[in-house]
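The freezer alarm interrupted the setup, so I double-checked each line after restarting. Inputs confirmed:
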Amino acid sequence: MTGPAPGTTRPAGGEVPGWTADEMMTVAASRALRNGAVCFVGIGLPSTAANLARRTHAPELVLVYESGTLGAKPDYLPLSIGDGILADTADSVITVPEVFNYWLQSGRVDVGFLSAAQLDRYANINTTVVGDDYAHPRVRLPGAGGAPEIAASCREVIVVVRQNPRTFVDRVDFRTSVGFGGGPGDRGRLGLRGAGPRMVITDLGVLEPDPHTCELRLTRVHPGATVAQAVAATGWPLTVTDDVTETDPPSPAELTVLRELEANKGQTGGRS
Amino acid sequence: MTGPAPGTTRPAGGEVPGWTADEMMTVAASRALRNGAVCFVGIGLPSTAANLARRTHAPELVLVYESGTLGAKPDYLPLSIGDGILADTADSVITVPEVFNYWLQSGRVDVGFLSAAQLDRYANINTTVVGDDYAHPRVRLPGAGGAPEIAASCREVIVVVRQNPRTFVDRVDFRTSVGFGGGPGDRGRLGLRGAGPRMVITDLGVLEPDPHTCELRLTRVHPGATVAQAVAATGWPLTVTDDVTETDPPSPAELTVLRELEANKGQTGGRS
Amino acid sequence: MAEIVPLGQAVAELVGDGDTVALEGFTHLIPFAAGHEIIRQGRRDLTLVRMTPDVIYDQLIGMGCARRLVFSWGGNPGVGSLHRFRDAVEHGWPVPLELEEHSHAGMANRYVAGASGLPFAVLRGYVGTDLVEQTPNIKPIACPFTGEVLTAVPALVPDVTVVHAQRADRAGNVQMWGITGVQKEAVLAARRALVTVEEIVDELDARPGAVVLPSWALSHVSPVPGGSHPSYAQGYSVRDNDFYIAWDKISRDRESFLAWMAEHVLQAAGREIR
Amino acid sequence: MAEIVPLGQAVAELVGDGDTVALEGFTHLIPFAAGHEIIRQGRRDLTLVRMTPDVIYDQLIGMGCARRLVFSWGGNPGVGSLHRFRDAVEHGWPVPLELEEHSHAGMANRYVAGASGLPFAVLRGYVGTDLVEQTPNIKPIACPFTGEVLTAVPALVPDVTVVHAQRADRAGNVQMWGITGVQKEAVLAARRALVTVEEIVDELDARPGAVVLPSWALSHVSPVPGGSHPSYAQGYSVRDNDFYIAWDKISRDRESFLAWMAEHVLQAAGREIR
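Predicted 3D structure, all chains:
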């Protein structure tokens, strides 16, 4: 796992008939994956997005789950990172140390998905504790999991997270995974080999780092959401690009596949 | 491989009817293996001795070949460390890095067999070059193979080598593997975790380290060989214990099994 | 050579108060039954080690068996938080829980170092994160050849590692397949190792993807059919996802947790939950 | 994704003069045919890397392809010396051969570091041996936690690694089984990788002990039935032990060696020795 488990879907700010905000978020994430890419996926939305992509525009997408399955091709959505369907359909099942050393650390993974409990303007991520005192946290979160090294070693990272002021904060209480650190040049100084976050996909739109300042800027809003909503949902003065575009709505094909995937989630789970 | 490849058998100093000196050497080596021990074996005489032991007094002997076969139970003597029969009969086939890291380095192996091109009174071993100038050797030998770490990490080491002044030298030209280094305490100072050489089995007899000085002393002679021969075959003033005993001759059972093993060596090799 | 003994005896002989214990498993093959036996035997002050502490660790923590947790991700996979874990960290109930926190890559390499007889492991990790300040067990190390600075973490050497596998032969050689995670490393890193298995068979015929743990590398093997429930054993059972979801409600409240444990674990010696 | 191309094209595209080349194999699955193709294409100044350089390296060295050898054991397994290797080291024929010499444990860990994207590996090794003085690539390193001093060796990162495997599917995913030695690490450590296979199949059905190298981790795959002869490919051929014995006589003498190479390798493009 690479962050807190996902909650349930909720409608976007402006109720839009036809699909939920989470469906839009998942579709946007799936579109961000090019065919043939090697993708490191955790359970939840990233796994859904990757499997949606594999069934639509990216049939050659290579899924790597940190449980040790290389090239898994699950025919239903696994409910856990170690679901048997992943081993059954993988090109190769390897050990956990091998996943992290031979495949992730070596720089062989193109895209890593991360989620966040807190995220700042440089896309630094907190999945450890909420509150200023680590020893006495207000909320104890699951912790780092694979995230710090995914953030460090994947060629690029895509963050998928719902946008609200509790999550989009001016300063993360704990830096579990590094985005752009304190700004330009920091990744290089830290010796991180991947390029870092390429985009942050939320239920309202898409944020992308400014190539010069590395600060996240709103570049897209989803249908039914507004720039004003995105700004209001962000705990720092959010920069908005002059040419904010609107995300193409989910296509009927995307929605059909996505809903079929959700309907058959964890198919055999607990039905022994 | 852990040393130079074995040559062919030759009769002992005094010709003894009934068995060859190499047969006596192999039988003596096999007797040194207790049932249930985990044994790291190279090809040649050590492999023969270990398989003889498994068929006589030590049916539970665990054979580990550095090619990555744990618990191999070959039904004929392999001609190479990577013979298919080893993989076919192993409890587990693992990678070479795993053999050396998880099994040897971790201290899980009881007995390691080594051979030598040169050996000194502290059982330090040379399998690298003959001659004083490494860059321009008189004879270039195969090199270290697994020997340095076998010598370092096995709980104990048994050296099997033919005894003559060219091999049993006052000073090895190159120290490939450490026996007792310069004498008492050296293994500890070097951080070597195994106890080091327990015995050196030759075609003439058996040498064992003095518990105080660590220097090899002649403790046994094989039937047909004499103390005088052993002393003459040693390039340093060989200490002889007061109570030198004579090795029990190979039993008919040992000889039968050994010869059957030799007769069927590498059975399927090249017979495709 | 491993001895094949009943679970109760194996835990009694191998797990003591204050021990460092790793019950490993990566969603698959989690040794729940062994964890329940540790709870029944009332072990205390354990240092629990695990990459992904989940429901069985929530139970051990909630029953007050643990003083310390060394981990990298603590949650109820696909469901949410571990409420007993959170209660221990946030409110010290039933006893305070010290944390030593790592990343998956760091934990995996710490087991590898332990299995390899090395005092530490080297990785590209942790750099720039706040994890570094929270433990002395993450340090920089320079490459003697390039000068590049990487990260070192100390070897993990549990007093006991417990894993669950599909089967063993009568000599105590263990075979597991499917997702085997970091179990081999965790077993080889430990001073003592217990493997619970679905069944004992005459012959371990070769299987694709099978990992074999030789008997001579193990302490005890205990036959415990269904011993990984609600986790699963590929080829024997499927994951009881409904239980993981139900656990969220059971564990939210201290009383309902204690009542559930009393009924399903403390009074369940011999018969395991299904 | 790996391209499936003929051996000649694969070697021409992947192996250049002066490259560091590892043709790995541990008695089993040694890529002889690829080595012969490198000889036919007249590559020079290669740095050859291998744990156990055997007959194919004797041939590459004797034909003057190599300037340098990085290795841990050089011999004709079960037979004796490598005469061309010795002639190059002892008399500089046909060209001098620089040596960088390690132990098996050191070489294996150097490949592991290369495959892991680390600049070095740590092991308990070499201490007290004369190997340490012969290369700058063996250095002490202290544990940052215990202070214990261990040994570091730099990562091996070949320009090209070549291995032989049983089969590949049409997408270029490779499957090998039996003794697979250090081949996976050698492939993942390299900048480019070539795998020769006994056959291309539609489907790689799961097999006990099978190791899969995904197509996306490889450069080229070349079908070369019998491409490991006189070594063997488990399930396809057995080791030609008679050839290894015969090689001792063929290679003893420079002229007989050259004559044999001319007849069986140089003039054998397309058809491989049987």
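Quick read of the result. The CA atoms of residues 209 and 216 of chain A lie 4 Å apart.
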